[in-house]
Structures are given as structure tokens and as C-alpha cells.
Fold:
Amino acid sequence: MRFRRTAAVLAALALCATACTGTDRPETSADRPETGADRPGTALDWTDCGDGFECAKLGVPLDHSKPDGERIQISMVRLPASGDRIGSILVNPGGPGGSGIDYARSAHSVLSEAVRARFDVVGFDPRGVGESSPVRCLSAGDLDAYLSLDGSPDSPAEVAALEEGSRRFAEGCQARSGKLLPHVGTADAARDMDLLREALGDKGLTYLGKSYGTQLGAVYAGLFPENVRALVLDGAVDPSLSPVELNATQAHGFEVALDSFLEDCFTAQDCPFRGSAKSAREEIAGLLRGADRKPLANGSGDGRQIGEAWTVLGLVTPLYDYQAWPVLRQALGQALKGDGTTLLRMADLLVDRRKDGTYSNQTEANMAVNCVDGRFPSTSSALAEAAHDAEARAPLFGAMVMWSSLPCTYWPVKGAPQQKIDASGAAPIMVVGTERDPATPYEWSKALAEQLSSGVLVGFDGDGHTAYLTGSACVDRLVDDYLINLTVPKDGTRCPKIG
Structure:
């Protein structure tokens, strides 16, 4: 699903909301009393890789059913604990396709100072992602072309173009990464994670997963319940839902987030709309229709046509983080005057397109994992019907979110069926849900907490994607106490709205 993206995009949004200024790096290893050679996990060949971090690789089976067969490398980074060490904490930003290495290198904004004092922060790129045997499918130019396709086709020609582009995406993945494709599912990554835990010398896994990272954590708990120490699953995905159900619910979640943004917009002096939230919605719908007919101006100089697809991507990106709403007000104000440059810049953050026109493999890995993790409609006509139904519930985003899965219809590997995860026998698992989360709706967090036999739900009356370290002192205190002291909050605890 195109919009099931990494929580790491929030860091980039926060930077752009403050004119893209730099951030402080963590303290250097010289400031710490221990070195990598003195710590557990030294079976791994840790080497200094700058800014106080150490890097290593772990060989794991390509096919876990053949443990003595071909192996691939999982890359990781760690920031040693600054105080009285308990063990390691693995972190995953979501996606699927988000780099855990990049996420850990922003440890100061990922975990509190109290947690970083007690745990080595370990980030890893899951198999198929980033530095860990990455999936590759398309050239940068071909990705530009694919992402420019009209994601809510309303003519036979647009449907045919989307079908052809989606087929080429799947064929490109098979041609360039065919051997890897059957083995990039979440269950494979969870098995890798247990090998990482063992190599790090931790008896039980301590883990923070956001967005899709909650699915990875839940699958881990289902496979290895006896190895769970403490899992925080923030902004949860409901693993029991089909891809069609996930897409439809997520599209509605973005509609709810947009309504919340618009209500807030009318309290700001620079709101580009007049009238009401309802009329503002109509203006946005008109903007999208207009971009479908005539692309918005692109002042970036890169030659891309800012049609409806890029406009929608740029619109949804700031909805991930309420602190980026001022950027969205500015971007919409410009777009309503015909200039889509800021919206395009926001879209590039979401798909991880760099200034030089190249991409990380986030989009390709996202598709590859999603396609093998679920059962998708087998024909484009069936997906079209699902898109029509989703549009009825989510008029602005329903069709595009649904059609974004079309490459999975042509995927060379059959997807796995959805199932509930019980994880019977696991230690208490903390599930955190934000009530107006656009990407992982609150109902998913409630559902996952109910499925897990030891699940404990903490709700947050807030906006934006995920809750921990986004401004709620209540959420932060509960998460820190659970991770450090194994203090389990009462199921159903609700943290109040900020301010």
C-alpha cells in the first residue's frame, strides 16, 4: 500500500517545518565509559562508523526453511548505552521499506534520554531494505514515471496506463530481484530479528516498532512468544485484515486527518481557505481535479509534471505530523494559485526521492513486502470495484490508496493469507494508538491489542502518525517506564490531548 509509510518521514517533516535546519548528533563514543569490545554482542564484528555509532553485519539464511543454504547479510548500527546498561533495544520505523539504520542514527528523536541511558539502541535494515540485500525493480526515471501515473483513473486510457505501469513494476522486480522476492515477507524479517537478538546476547527482545514496525513486532511475538521482554507497538497495523480492508480503512483515516487539519486551519492567520471546512474540502477536491486536467507549475526545475498523483502524495505527507500543518497551509495556498512546488517537495519526502533525482529503495521494498504479506485481488477489474467502494467512504483518497496496490495483482510470488496473532505465552505487550492517526487508524491499535493475549492498549487523544515522543508527556512516561522497569500500564489507559 503506497501510504503505509515509515514513521521516519516525521523527522524529515519536522526539519522542513523549521526551514530544513540541521540537528545535533549524539555524543561521541569517547564520551562513554565502555567500548564495543567490552560489551555483549561482540560475536558480531562491530566497527566504529562515526558519531559514536558502531556498525556490523549478520549473515542469515536467505530461506529460513534451509538454514544451511545461501545466506544474505543484515546490516545494523548501534549506539551504546550511556549509563547503567540493561541490554539492547531494537527499533524499526515502519514502511515496510523504512531504514532502521537511518532511524537509529536519529536516536535522540526516536528514544528518550532515559531509555538511551539504559539500552544500546540497535537499528537494522530488514532484508530487502536499504543496506540489507535491497530489492531493486526500476530505474529512477522509471520510478518517476510510475509515481506520476494517475492513481485514480477515470477513463479507459488511464486504467490501461496504470495497468501497464504496474505490470512493468512487477516484471522489473522479478528481473532484478527475483531470487529475493519470495523471502522478503514480515515472517522472514521476524526470524532475522530473533537471530539478531541472539547475536546481541539478549535473553529477551526489547523493541520499539512504529507503523508497519508494529506488524513486524506482532509477528515476532507470534513466532517467538517466549523471547519477548518488552515490545512497544506504536501506531499499530491490524494483521487480521485483508489488503483491501487495510487500504479502505487507511484511506478513511486520511480523510479524518484532513478534516482535523481543516478545522485547525481556520484558527490560523495564514489559512488559505475562506468559508468553512466543508467548502475547503470542496476546494481541495477541485484542486485535485484541476491537476488531473492540467499539471501544477513545478518551480524545482526537474521537469516533472505535477499532476494529480504527485499532488495527492504532497497533500497526505504533512498529515502524518500535525507539526507540519503550517507547511501544508503554505503548500495548499501556493497550489490554489497554480504552483505545486512545495507539494512536490513534500511528496519527495514520502517516497524518499533525493535532490539528485535518485531514490532509496523504500518504494520498491514497500511493494515487495506488501505483495507477499497479503492476498490481493487477482484482476484489475476486481481492484477497480474495491476502489469504487473505497471512494464512497473516502472521496479524496479512497481510489488512489486502493489502486496503489495494483502491482501486487501481477506479482510473481503468491501472497500469504491474513491471520490474527495471539502470541500466547508472551510477556505483556504495549500497543499505543493515536485517535486521529491518518496512516494507521486507531481502530487498528484497538484490534491488535485485543488479538494479542497479553496486549495492553494505551490510547492518545491526538493527531498525526504515532504517539511516542511526539509531544505527549503521558505517552512518553508510560512507554519509558514499561521499557526500563517493565511497569505495565492499565489496559485502556487514555492519554489526554496536548494543550
